[in-house]
Structures are given as structure tokens and as C-alpha cells.
Design brief:
Number of helices: 1
Structural class: mainly beta
Radius of gyration: 18 Å
CATH architecture: Sandwich
Mean pLDDT: 77
Low-confidence stretches: 27-58
CATH class: Mainly Beta
Number of domains: 1
Number of strands: 8
Largest sheet: 4 strands, antiparallel
């Protein structure tokens, strides 16, 4: 009898986890990570070329950990995907606003291509990148006053059906 109760509880919890969430993602860079993930074939690590192609079966769409910036340098970027597959990135500032020199958004599309664009460093600056009608990966890099580039956001942007 106890086994059935535990199984039912586990089923209810897994359904609750799957259905929980919101339509957009707003992330602060609080994930602890001392180093960036190693570069893998087909995986974009730094902003650069506007379009690249991923090798089949690569980790092109698998998010990795973000860099820890500390509470005084946190930055907020809102990522949303609309019904047409376009990805909207909005810079929302944060305690590290005065340290930002450049923000770059990279979209690794489900079709294996990638696009990078610069996001403005003023609060409410927005860019739109083309995505697919599938789940894409979005990565945001921030170049700060210390001369280093940090990965502050790396997550999926699922397609929102009507």
C-alpha cells in the first residue's frame, strides 16, 4: 500500500514540475561556476561569426553553466520567443549595469545554424533574432569593464504554440 502512495506522489510531483513555468524567462546570473565549460565541436562559446553550422549529433543545443559574477555585478536579460519563432532579448539592467561594455546574444537554432547580434547596454534595449518553430538555445555574453567576457545566460527557448 505504501508503495502505491509513493508512486502516486511521485507521479503528481512530476506532472507539477512539467506543467509549472511561465511564458518568458528572466534570469539573474546567480549560478555558481568557477570556470566556463570546455569548447566542444559545433558549440559556440564566444560571440563571433554571424552564422555557423553544427555537426550532426553535437552538443550544439545543450545549455551549459553560466559564469558567476557576484551579487554586485548581476545583470538581468529577459528572453522570450513569440508565436512566429522570433526570439526577443531585452536588457533589464541590474546591479552590474555600470560595468557592462557590450552584450551579445547568440541563438543556436534547432536546424543547426547559429546567429549572433549585439544587444544595447541601456535598460530596455531590445533585439529580435530569427528562431525556429522548435526549441532553440539562447546564450547571452556580457563584456565587462574588467576586459573579460562572461556567459550570463544559457537556456532553451521553446516554441510557444497558440
Amino acid at each position: 500500500m505504501n508503495c502505491r502512495i509513493y508512486a502516486l506522489f511521485a507521479l503528481i510531483m512530476s506532472i507539477a514540475l512539467v506543467t509549472a513555468g511561465c511564458t518568458g524567462t528572466q534570469t539573474q546570473t546567480t549560478a555558481p561556476s568557477a570556470t566556463a565549460a570546455p569548447s566542444q565541436p559545433g558549440q559556440v562559446q564566444t560571440p563571433g561569426a554571424a552564422a555557423t553550422t553544427a555537426a550532426a549529433g553535437s552538443t550544439f543545443l545543450l545549455p551549459t553553466e553560466v559564469d558567476a559574477l557576484g551579487p554586485e555585478r548581476l545583470l538581468n536579460v529577459n528572453i522570450e520567443k513569440d508565436y512566429l519563432g522570433r526570439i526577443h532579448a531585452t536588457f533589464q539592467g541590474g546591479p552590474g549595469l555600470l560595468n557592462v561594455r557590450k552584450l551579445a546574444v547568440t541563438v543556436n537554432r534547432a536546424d543547426g545554424t547559429s546567429a549572433t547580434a549585439d544587444l544595447g547596454i541601456k535598460v530596455d534595449d531590445t533585439i529580435t533574432l530569427d528562431g525556429t518553430k522548435e526549441t532553440d538555445r539562447v546564450i547571452v555574453y556580457a563584456s565587462l569593464a574588467d576586459g573579460k567576457t562572461y556567459k550570463i545566460y544559457d537556456d532553451f527557448a521553446p516554441f510557444r504554440s497558440r
